[in-house]
Specification:
Layout (H helix, E strand, L loop, with lengths): L5 H12 L18 H7 L5 E4 L5 H13 L5 E4 L5 H12 L4 E8 L4 H4 L2 E5 L2 H6 L1 H7 L5 E5 L3 H28 L7 H7 L9 H13 L15 H11 L5 H13 L5 H14 L14
């Protein structure tokens, strides 16, 4: 396991609990290896290297460094939120050196250690099958699939996250309407009762209830500033490329942009939800100065 952040550390621990022997490398935390070169020497061939690092430059540099020292028939897995086009390119580069590449979309956030991680794998059949014991240990029952060829895993995860944007924004807008209504509503209570028998019940709603319990129904401690990590943009770009209308996902991304220019309650809800399911940092709300 290369990368022991919020998800990588939880995945490593879940695998160890299920009896797997895991070697690790992360330059920022205690690891079993002090370098990628040492990590390669610690494993028996054919080896499997799971990258769990931020998408973009870090993933690219880690992949290239690993590819340079991996051996024939080794497998490199990218479990981050990489763009599926980059994954297709990396698959081709790896194949040119006799190395397998498998892209795995991972969902589960900070709760995955106990509840399991949903896994969406893309790549060739043989290396994906080789990794099945790992997938079974990481995922809950029926929580993983080899969804297609190179890039398919990250493509499915990209759309998954685009849908997540829309779901979060729908909850955010609904609770903002209630927040500004003429009624003195306990939004924590509403989020609680909607978990029982309601057609809008979901894990996100459970997390919103937890956020209200932690921060209060006004979410006063949270600034209404919502980041995006790229998958919503990529989903919309894919929709445009395929001539598929995606108005809800598009509007939810634009709402995140708007949150960075104005403070509103729906943005507080979305920020609180990202913190609850993924451990993403929230900005502290700025407090008005005391008036003497």
């Amino acid at each position: 396991m290369i990368g022991l952040g919020r998800m990588g550390s939880g995945m490593t621990e879940r695998l160890r609990r299920d009896g797997h022997e895991i070697e690790t490398y992360d330059p920022n935390v205690d690891s079993t290896a002090s370098s990628l070169e040492e990590l390669v020497r610690m494993l028996e061939r054919p080896r499997a290297f799971w990258l769990m690092v931020p998408a973009g430059e870090i993933t690219e540099s880690s992949f290239q460094s690993l590819l340079a020292i991996a051996g024939s028939d080794d497998v490199i897995v990218d479990g981050g939120n990489s763009n599926f086009r980059d994954s297709q390119r990396r698959h081709a580069e790896a194949a040119g050196r006799g190395v397998h590449f498998v892209d795995v979309g991972v969902s589960g956030g900070i709760w995955g250690l106990e509840a399991g991680f949903c896994l969406m794998a893309g790549g060739d059949e043989e290396p994906a099958s080789r990794l099945e014991p790992i997938f079974r240990s990481l995922a809950p029952e029926d929580g993983y699939a080899h969804v297609g060829g190179p890039g398919a895993g990250h493509f499915v995860k990209m759309v998954h996250n685009g849908i997540e944007y829309g779901l979060m924004q729908s909850y955010a807008e609904g609770f903002e309407i209630m927040h500004h209504s003429e009624f003195d509503l306990d939004l924590r209570e509403v989020a609680g009762i909607w978990q029982h028998g309601s057609v809008v019940r979901s894990w996100l709603l459970e997390l919103l209830h937890a956020a209200f319990e932690e921060h209060g129904s006004g979410l006063d401690e949270i600034a209404g500033y919502v980041e995006d990590s790229g998958e919503g943009r990529w989903t919309i770009a894919a929709a445009i490329e395929e001539n598929v209308p995606a108005p809800v996902i598009s509007a939810s991304l634009f709402a995140r942009f708007a949150s960075r220019q104005e403070i509103n309650f729906s943005a507080k809800v979305a920020a609180a939800l990202r913190n609850q399911f993924g451990g993403h940092a929230v900005r502290a709300a700025e407090r008005a100065p005391d008036v003497p």
